[in-house]
Amino acid sequence: MPILEGEGLTKHFGGLAAVSRVDFSVEEGEIVGLIGPNGAGKTTLFNLISGALVPKEGTVRFQDRKINGLKPHRICRMGLARTFQSVKVFPNMPVFENVLLGSLFGTSGGMSSADAAGEAEKALEFVGLSALSSIPAKDLTLANQKRVEVASALATQPELLLLDEMMAGLNATEVAEAMELAGRIHDRGITVFMIEHVMRAIMNVCDRIMVLHHGEKIAEGTPQEIAASKTVIEVYLGE
Amino acid sequence: MNSITLGLKKWWIPGLLLVVLLLLAGLPRFASLYNVVLVTSILMYIILTQSWVLFSGPTGYMSLATAAFFGVGIYTAAILGWKLPLPVVIVTAGLLSSLLALVVGALTLRLRGIYFIIFTLGLVELIKNVVLWHAIKFTGARGRFVVLVDNNTIYYLMLFILVVLLLTTYLIRRSRYGLAMRSIGEDEEAAAHVGVNVTMVKVITFAISASFMGAVGAIIATRWTYIDPYIAFKSLYSFMPVLMAIFGGMGQLYGPILGAAVFAYLEEVLITKFPYYYMLLFGVILLVTILYLPDGLVGLVQRLRRGGWARGQHANT
User: Fold this and answer.
1) How far, rounded to the nearest angstrom, does the alpha carbon of residue B209 sit from its chain's CA centroid?
2) Could you give all domains of chain A from N- to C-terminal order, each with its CATH number?
3) What's the whole-model pTM score?
4) What is the pLDDT of residues B214-229, one digit of tens each?
5) Is A91's Cβ below 8 Å from some Cβ in B?
């Protein structure tokens, strides 16, 4: 049974169909990649899943429960967390408080302040930021801010994590570290659905890849199949 | 040595606050009636400002609805003051104001930035005109008389509300709820996505802040003897808390308190000394503050203290 399933998802912005009749599914325990040229509708699709946007048509099911129409905080508490393409940290809060918000508010049952602080510390340690926990998030490098976001998301104890371009804007070393982090998140038993432009990363890490173009799903398959697909090459390189 | 300095740094503000509160509690025993009345209106402004900051400070939503909640409190006292004991009237006023805030908040807190500001300002005008229409149509008179209460009672009630407000502010600030409010001010979308129920946090805080504004309205109305919609819903009461908070500086808990106290005292002095130019002088003071003290009085205090410490450290080395 898939952990996340989308059926006929459609979202228009004015006259433009940002996402149009997209069907997809993510199995429990998978790492699935989502690629496509700029403006293909990848982030819009994530916004439809996380509750930031409400689809015009179609349904999203998470663990067999319909979640479209629910508020983002409800979806988060059900165990579906995400990060953002343009990093969204709380700039003037210390790193620790950034992550604490996740464990205080984002977990399913809620927890005591002491437990939440413990969870936040664990999440920070997991992403390797324990040493920076008292520094305001705005003073961190981009790579570390992205780690803060991941730590906040992990602190909500998700079953499924949506990563929106975790590697964009990072240098080669940082990309390697981010890939390693994605792998470790997966090893914890968290299902990962990620948007990525860094092909090397997505080809190495993902079990399966979906390709969006002009809001429609044009291909899906293993990294090898996608790399060999004529349609995908045409979309990226032109005919 | 170091821990003592740290301890002093940590305790001097609450300690100072306690001393000030004790002095205020004894004020009617040694001060003239004029001064008691003056301090009452200073306390009123402190409460209005601090309750405005309670919501608008951390969340970043600039509300100009203060006059609406304040006015609801005033009218509650005018209508119920003749039949019910004063404490009941004050509590009712607080409840009615927070009820209004709940309804308005649920409807409008999805608006952001300028739209929210304009709406809240519009709300004051709307309620003013509805009350005016009702008064003229059904009672045949524009205003109402308010039951009289002696000045010391008004003073102590005001002080009591202030203490409750300060405790509430302190408890909220250090709770998880305060953290959630700050996260909304920093990035609302991110807050929602880590599980913060942003709508609920905003609406409830808005209502808490409104309840204090309503309570204060009910108390001060008893000093005014006569009110009408223009007096009760004067939009000046929406702008004053904002100006006072900016004047004091919003970075620290005591900033808005300091700002409101100095500003309100200044108003009184200027109005008595320069009745014709006081608005002009007021404007100049505000301009100077915004231009040269972007962090308000608090910023000035901090700059002076830092200067002092820097010199002290230099002497040590």
Assistant:
1) 9
2) 2-237 (3.40.50.300)
3) 0.89
4) 999 999 999 998 999 9
5) yes
